[in-house]
Amino acid sequence: MIRGLDCSHWQGTINWSLVKNDNIKFAFAKCTQGNSFKDAKYYNNKISCQANDILFGSYHFANGGDPIQEADFYVANIGALKKGELMCLDWEISHSNPVDWCKKFLDRVYSRSGVRPFLYTNEARVKSLNWKPVVDGNYGLWVAKYGINNGQMNTKPDTGAWDFYAIWQYTSKGSVKGITGNVDLDTYNGSLDSLKKYGVVTINEQSMGRKIAYPIDKVYITQNFGENPAIYKQFGLKGHNGMDFRTKFWDSPLGRRYVMASLSGVVIEIGNQGGAGYGIFIRLKHDGNEQTVYGHLYKTYVKVNQYVNKGQTIGLTDNTGFSTGAHLHLGYREKGWENKINNGYNGYSEPSFE
Ligand SMILES: [Zn+2]
Known about the structure:
- The chain is α/β, with parallel strands linked by helices.
- It has helices at 16-21, 42-51, 67-77, 98-113, 123-128, 132-136, 192-196, 203-207, 229-232, and strands at residues 2-7, 26-33, 37-38, 55-61, 88-90, 118-122, 141-144, 167-174, 183-188, 221-223, 243-246, 258-260, 265-272, 280-285, 291-300, 307-308, 313-317, 327-333.
- 19% of the residues lie in helices and 27% in strands.
- Helix 3 (67-77) runs parallel beside helix 4 (98-113).
- 44% of the residues are buried.
- Bound molecules: zinc ion (ZN).
- Zinc ion binds next to loops.
């Protein structure tokens, strides 16, 4: 178990080096609320906390408006994410459909940032609502239960649909050096290294094992690697040099679905080949020189040289380029393309998926 705290502008200016000396290993600071409020102390808290080598997390206080708008507002204001940096949804309001709201918010933040936020709420809500969709989405629980609220850990919280809690906020009357007045205290149910795994991971860690994530959320392969040699002969290929995914489903009649990065990496190319080739496409470069390319897109959400996390939304699918219907083309170059060794597929090979 390790010791942490959470704070907002209500704590005023915090002396983070004194906090560090008081054995605080992690800290969450309020970032945003609703779709317009930004905590005035957020950036100071983040920078000073990280400068003192305390694991940092941000949180968003839900107002219960449009969950997508609130999620986008939060992600737009967190600043650059460092390795291990954590995120959280703070759910403290009355609402007609809380679990559905939270799931939509959490999924949106995950697709935009690559980080699965914690869900923070109190024990009464944990027990009285069916959180299974959120549990199934792999979002960790941060639960508040104070008991007599005397600054100490009292009776452990119930965890409802979760098998265990990740973080327990055990008092709102904590006292920590470097902070004036009371502060919320938390304990993480494991080691600091395991807590970091809830946050952003690095390229190196993600590409070990060389399995890549599906770039789309409903997986239906319409054309496999190597298929249809007769069609691809005109391009000097032995066959289809990627994987095609269906994008038209009942909920996307135009075939527009979000594209997610199959591995973390850097955007090295965004192009538009008009009615030919990939049409609008994105190319990423990963650790170990691997490349992935995503073709026939409608639009892109990233810029060249931008770093993206695995699972992060990078584009929207369509039917641009050499394409006979809406779909997503994914190409994978395991050995990169620096030496341009043509294997009959312009260096592309069949990926293996997680
Ligand atoms: Zn294709």
